[in-house]
Design brief:
The complex is a heterodimer of chains A (280) and B (427). Chain A is an alpha/beta fold and 280 residues long. In chain A, 43% of the residues lie in helices and 22% in strands. Chain B has helices spanning 5-29, 46-70, 73-76, 90-105, 114-139, 148-164, 169-188, 196-216, 218-221, 251-255, 262-287, 290-300, 302-307, 312-338, 348-361, 366-382, 390-404; strands at residues 32-33, 43-44, 238-239, 249-250. The chains are: A alpha/beta (280), B mainly alpha (427).
Chain lengths: 280, 427
């Protein structure tokens, strides 16, 4: 894993520092600190209810953290995601995400979904619709480029024949792939995948892991992954962060994490009756 | 390549449909000979109609056969891409073009009397309002029950500008649209976080607020008495009065024809037709632009839209603003057509009818709006003889549509862009 070696020397792309998220009396995320690098796959794992999706929602701007900082370094710019408006996290900071329960636009075609993802660029090219309404060359060229980008993703995922079909009518496995393609069409710096293998069969899961690795190697972007399928996580991750009850209990390479007693305890519930009850 | 059985039957089907359109058009156009004198009766020429229909049938059949044998079927299937009319199948484009021609020729038909032309422009007002509201409800998915408020803003803007600032119709029209759009954005701000039922309630309240302000601000709006003697529009400075003021030329003087009251009605008919078509072309074009796709994306899933970098505030405000602008244009036309406005023209029932037109027509469907406007506006007018049963019939028609076509008369959604149309399209 050459990418994994390269990342050690670089500054992190995403830094989460002392992130805390409380819902009323419940602390879902408790002073969590970790980093994700460009050109690396960072997995966030933990038992159900460990706070993984909450972390995701904080990073992608759906929740405002109670305290702590989330920082993206993109080019020369630094973005504080914990303060940025939701749509600017995707548009300016370059954070794209997929959803645990797929959120495509069901009554729009696959191609339209991929074009909506390029909204910011196309909107600028259309001069906020004026150039577009007049059918000026400058917008037509931008639209052709947008369609070409969408087409390149459809070809890569072998989905060209579905381009003009409504997303809602397609099989679940295809929808998962389209959602990743749509996120990639925003040309992100960090791609956040929320349980991308949920509901996929083993063959589709293998295909998915190949896709994620190829995105990392080809685009050199950072990938943040939440997943329950341990074979997928262990097979493709460069780094794994393990959460339990909102706190980080372990971090390291797949091999390190697998042999960490704290992780085994959290997953298998060893000594749960003796220690666990007091901790809650 | 020899034509195959499937392409022949497809061409036959296409030709029959073209022939049907031709029949509709030929009946009034070729089938009736205009009398040269008033005393002479209308002469019917059935053979002319037969000849026209046959010619269209054969011609269309040959063209269709030619196209289907030249191109493989897989390419014939996706609709042609046309920049002016939007993505339509050849079928629907034929029907649409025939429809436009029929609508454009209506006032010139021998059977068109004053009442029919007047009714036609009334239907067209509702078609235009339906198309405008379609942007807000059909595309952006924002349920707006107070659309009539923007219609009122447009009507009063034109009236007040014309009376106090002496602006003519063409000068005030863009201003009326701009004022209505401004009110649309103003309404948009407080309701940004609302969706569905809650949004409907607030917009309903907004519609009533505008009406009540119009009633109570008597100094400006004349209260419930309204404002009368609103100036009529002119055609490049030509007015439609029998005795124009000094220094003005009237339409009939300019063309040296005798004065007829129906000229003004015909002019108004074409005016609203042009405004409605402007609305149509605008919405067909904007649907295929990033902002149009953003409206639809927001309707489908606001959370996913935000995750893709769409700013929900801008997307919603632009939908409210542009939808309101067209209501403002329609309102200005309404004021100039009536020559008199008062707040009772802008009650909630108007909003309800416009919304019903959009919903019954099939949300987002342009032709559906036309069909629904025809049904909802013409039915109560034509059924006036039934007196008390009129509204009963109206209600029954709405229930019938909802039972048989629960998603609207024409609910098919045409994609805004297709990969299949491009060079080296779908495999």
């Amino acid at each position: 894993m050459s990418a994994a070696h390269a990342m050690q020397s670089e500054l992190p792309l995403l830094e989460v520092r002392d992130l805390t998220m409380r819902f009323g009396g419940l602390t879902a995320v408790d002073r969590l600190t970790f980093a994700a690098h460009s050109g690396a796959i960072t997995a966030l794992i933990g038992p159900n209810g460990a706070g993984k999706t909450t972390v995701f929602n904080c990073i992608t701007g759906f929740y405002r953290p109670t305290s702590g900082a989330i920082v993206i370094e993109r080019g020369d710019e630094t973005y504080r995601l914990d303060r940025l408006a939701g749509h600017r996290i995707a548009r300016d900071a370059g954070v794209a995400r997929t959803f645990q329960n797929i959120r495509l636009f069901p009554n729009m075609t696959v191609l339209e979904n991929l074009l909506v993802a390029q909204h910011a660029r196309l909107m600028r090219a259309s001069a906020f619709s004026l150039a577009g309404l007049l059918g000026l060359r400058r917008y037509r060229d931008a639209e052709e480029a947008g369609i070409a980008l969408a087409r390149s993703w459809l070809e890569r995922l072998d989905l060209v024949q579905y381009a003009d079909r409504d997303c809602g009518t397609l099989a679940y496995g295809l929808q998962r792939k389209i959602e990743i393609a749509r996120a990639m069409c925003t040309q992100p710096a960090l791609l956040c995948l929320d349980e991308p293998a949920a509901g996929l069969n083993p063959r589709e899961t293998t295909e998915l892991s190949r896709l994620i690795i190829s995105i990392r190697d080809e685009f050199g972007i950072g990938i943040l992954l939440i997943e329950h399928d341990m074979s997928l996580v262990m097979g493709i991750s460069d780094r794994i962060v393990v959460l339990d009850h909102g706190a980080r209990i372990s971090e390291g390479t797949p091999a390190e994490v697998r042999s960490d007693p704290a992780v085994i305890r959290a997953y298998l519930g060893e000594d749960d009756t003796a220690n666990g009850e007091g901790g809650r | 390549m020899a034509p195959q059985a499937s392409s022949i039957s497809a061409a036959l089907r296409e030709a029959s449909l073209a022939a049907a359109v031709a029949l509709v058009l030929a009946l009034p156009l070729a089938g009736v000979r205009l009398p040269s004198g008033a005393a002479e009766p209308l002469a019917f020429r059935p053979w002319w109609v037969v000849a026209a229909v046959l010619a269209v049938f054969v011609g269309r059949f040959l063209i269709a056969l030619h196209i289907s044998t030249r191109r493989p079927r897989a390419f014939a299937a996706p609709p042609l891409f046309d920049r002016a009319l939007g993505a339509m199948t050849p079928w629907r484009r034929w029907i649409f073009a025939g429809f436009i021609v029929a609508v454009a020729l209506l006032p010139l038909m021998p059977f068109a009397d004053r009442r029919m032309i007047d009714l036609g422009s009334l239907v067209l007002i509702y078609v235009m309002l339906g198309w405008g509201l379609n942007i807000v409800v059909g595309l952006a998915g924002l349920l707006d029950l107070g659309y009539v408020a923007f219609y009122a803003v447009g009507a009063y803007s034109y009236t007040l500008l014309a009376i106090h600032f002496d602006l003519n119709f063409w000068e005030s029209l863009p201003l009326a649209g701009a004022f209505a759009a401004l009110f649309g954005v103003l309404l948009g701000f407080p309701v940004l976080r609302l969706r569905g039922d809650y949004l409907a309630i607030v917009t309903l309240g907004f519609g009533e607020m505008i009406r009540i302000v119009l009633i109570n601000w008597s100094d400006l709006t004349g209260g419930s008495e309204g404002i009368s003697s609103i100036p009529a529009p002119t055609l490049f400075g030509l007015s439609f009065t029998a005795n124009p003021a000094a220094g003005e030329t009237a339409f009939h003087q300019f063309f040296g024809i005798p004065f007829a009251g129906v000229h003004k009605l015909i002019f108004l008919y074409y005016l609203i037709l042009a405004l409605a078509l402007l609305t149509h072309v605008f919405s067909m074009r904007i649907r295929r632009l990033p902002v149009g796709r953003a409206w639809e994306a927001l309707r489908e899933d606001e959370i996913a839209s935000r995750a893709l970098g769409l700013n929900p505030v801008m997307v919603k405000l632009s939908a409210f603003g542009i939808g309101a602008m067209f209501a403002g244009f329609a309102g200005a036309f309404f004021a100039t057509r009536q020559g008199f406005i008062n707040p009772s023209s802008f009650t909630f029932i108007e909003s309800a009818i416009i919304l019903a037109i959009v919903v019954l027509g099939g949300m987002g469907s342009q032709m559906g709006v036309v069909c629904a406007a025809l049904v909802l506006v013409l039915l109560p007018e034509l059924a006036r003889d039934l007196a008390g049963f009129r509204m009963l019939l109206f209600g029954a028609a709405m229930v019938a549509i909802m039972v048989w076509r629960p998603r609207g008369l024409l609910s098919h959604r045409e994609p805004s862009v297709r990969l299949g149309d491009r060079a080296g399209g779908a495999p």
